[in-house]
Amino acid sequence: MPIFLDSGKSSEVEKYMKMGIIRGVTTNPTILLKDGVTGGMEGVKKQSIEIARLIHP
């Protein structure tokens, strides 16, 4: 069964991807803002792209 991390923090995503225990990340603007992303929707977009880069196969 695949496990997905609910986080907007790049450091957490990177940590668990390296451990090989997650298949991907579930995130949305609410999670990203809770995890400290600033800059409105542009900040959300930037962080989403960063997370996508980290989980890209």
Structural notes for this entry:
With 57 residues, the chain is mainly alpha-helical. The chain has one domain. Helices cover 56% and strands 11% of the residues. It is built from three helices and two strands; from the N terminus they run βαβαα. It has a two-stranded parallel ribbon with strand order 1-2. Helix 1 links the parallel strand 1 and strand 2. Helix 1 packs parallel to helix 3. It is elongated and about 35 Å long.
Radius of gyration: 11 Å
> Strand percentage, roughly?
5-15%
Poorly predicted residue ranges? none
Q: Please state how the strands of the largest beta sheet are arranged side by side.
A: 1-2
Mean pLDDT: 94
Share of helical residues? 55-70%
User: Shape from CA axes?
Assistant: elongated
Short description:
This protein is mostly helical and 57 residues long.
Describe the SSE topology.
Elements: E1 4-6, H1 10-19, E2 24-26, H2 29-34, H3 40-55
Parallel strand pairs: 1-2
Helix pairs in contact: 1-3
Features:
mainly alpha, 57 residues, single chain, two-stranded parallel sheet, 56% helix, 3 helices, elongated
